[in-house]
Design brief:
Strand content: 5-15%
Pfam family, one: GlcNAc_2-epim
InterPro entries: 6-hairpin_glycosidase_sf (IPR008928), 6hp_glycosidase-like_sf (IPR012341), AGE/CE (IPR010819)
Radius of gyration: 20 Å
Distance between the termini: 34 Å
Keywords: Isomerase
Structural class: mainly alpha
Family: Belongs to the N-acylglucosamine 2-epimerase family.
Number of strands: 10
Organism: Chromohalobacter canadensis
Length: about 425
């Protein structure tokens, strides 16, 4: 997608004021989301005013993301962040762990009816533990060892060279489904483990996942990422065809994931090269194509500003919702490509997406970011007035200031 811009005289990534702005916005987000801490353990989703709704309980995904986010903040020198990360680690080590069958549940065993074991969830427990370990948070090293063992024995398939999706209660039955979303966050985790634990074999796993999901399946589809597969990795393009708005398993392609995958692929390329290994040429080619596909299919493709949530296999919008995380990932990817290439095209999009976030998602009156909007940029009535997620927005204030390698937690520690 052409942007018809001239080359700016100075990149925002090189501007001291922009770095100050990113720091300030990150601190504002951290302050808002500390209100999600539960005295009973863990963290709960917040409403739009930054309050915990009545009856809310600890959420494992959110708690894992809080361990990660406040672990990063602790390494940046934010007072109080280490205690919040430790609060998350304690909950992940106890309250949210399945003492009966091992592994982790979506919420505490006493309150959750869903006792399946989900790969996606375990990846965020591990990511939170890995970042907290890098930050020296008590209890995090033991937690990381435990969750990595579960991931390696239950979710990593050596024969498939990818992660499997979920098990029924008690690890009894493996679902006849393979998912792109959990494998994408698996790549994110592999990058973290390779550096935090100094275990380079995780980079081989990340490369195998990217080769399958992107090079083998997305590239022939004009870089629209297929995220749903049967258990034998046969494509399942009509999965959830009636649910284009689903939070984790929507029908069709998700432009926000095009940006997220593309950024992770640049991190993988840099991680391989940092260890003296040659990255395959297709890795950057496919990453760049994914970025353009995200713009082509996502940006204002329904005639309204911003990124649509999902599109069908012809690139037509399926869900017109505007979600904060898709825009956070778009600007993070633009900053990564700008570092990698210096191309003014990415400078344009980096600025353009931040400007859109500034006027659309940042809530200066109540704090935090608006998270789920409809195509009119009003609060999405189907989701309600909620602000559960710190992770995507906070990372968007960090990634533009960091190198592509080493992994995020290690890079932050070296700031």
């Amino acid at each position: 997608m052409a942007d018809n811009t001239h080359s700016p005289a100075r990149r925002w990534l090189d501007a001291e004021t922009h770095h100050h702005w990113l720091t300030r916005e990150g601190l504002r987000l951290l302050e808002f989301h500390r209100q999600a801490r539960l005295d009973t353990g863990g963290f709960a989703p917040l409403d739009g005013d930054g309050r915990i709704p009545e009856g809310a309980s600890a959420d494992t995904m959110i708690t894992g993301r809080m361990a990660h986010s406040y672990g990063l903040a602790a390494m940046q020198g934010v007072p109080g962040a280490a205690s919040l990360a430790e609060h998350a680690i304690r909950a992940l080590s106890g309250l949210l762990r399945d003492e009966q069958d091992g592994g982790w549940l979506a919420g505490g065993p006493a309150v959750t009816a869903d006792r399946t074991k989900q790969c996606y969830l375990h990846h965020f427990v591990a990511l939170g533990a890995a970042t907290a370990r890098q930050a020296g948070i008590p209890g995090s090293a033991a937690l990381l060892d435990e969750v990595v063992e579960v991931i390696e024995t239950r979710f990593w398939s050596e024969s498939e060279q990818a992660f499997v999706e979920r098990y029924a209660q008690g690890w009894r039955e493996l679902a006849d489904y393979r998912g792109g979303n959990s494998n994408m966050h698996g790549v994110e985790l592999c990058l973290a483990l390779a550096d935090v634990r100094d275990e380079p074999h995780w980079l081989d796993r990340a490369l195998a996942i990217v080769e399958r999901l992107i090079h083998r399946h997305a590239a022939p589809r004009d870089y629209r990422i297929l995220e749903h597969f049967h258990g034998d990795w046969a494509e399942w393009p009509d999965y959830n065809v009636e649910q284009p708005h689903h939070d984790f398993y929507p029908y069709g392609a998700t432009p926000g994931h095009s940006f997220e995958w593309s950024r992770l692929m640049l991190h993988l390329e840099a991680a391989l090269e940092a260890r003296g290994r040659e990255a395959p040429a297709w890795l950057f080619v496919d990453a760049a194509a994914l970025f353009e596909a995200g713009l082509r299919d996502g940006w204002a493709s329904d005639g309204a500003p911003g990124l649509v949530y999902t599109v069908d296999w012809q690139g037509q919008p399926s869900s017109r919702r505007r979600r904060h995380w898709t825009h956070a990932e778009a600007l993070a990817a633009a900053s990564a490509f700008l570092q990698r290439t210096g191309d003014a095209h990415y400078e344009h999009w980096y600025r353009h997406v931040w400007d859109f976030i500034d006027t659309t998602f940042i809530d200066r009156a109540r704090g935090g970011w608006q998270q789920e909007l409809d195509h009119r940029l009003a609060i999405d009535p189907a989701q309600g007035d909620v602000k559960p997620d710190l992770y995507h927005a906070y990372q968007a204030t960090l990634l533009p200031r960091l190198p592509l390698a080493p992994a995020l937690a290690v890079s932050v520690e070296r700031l």
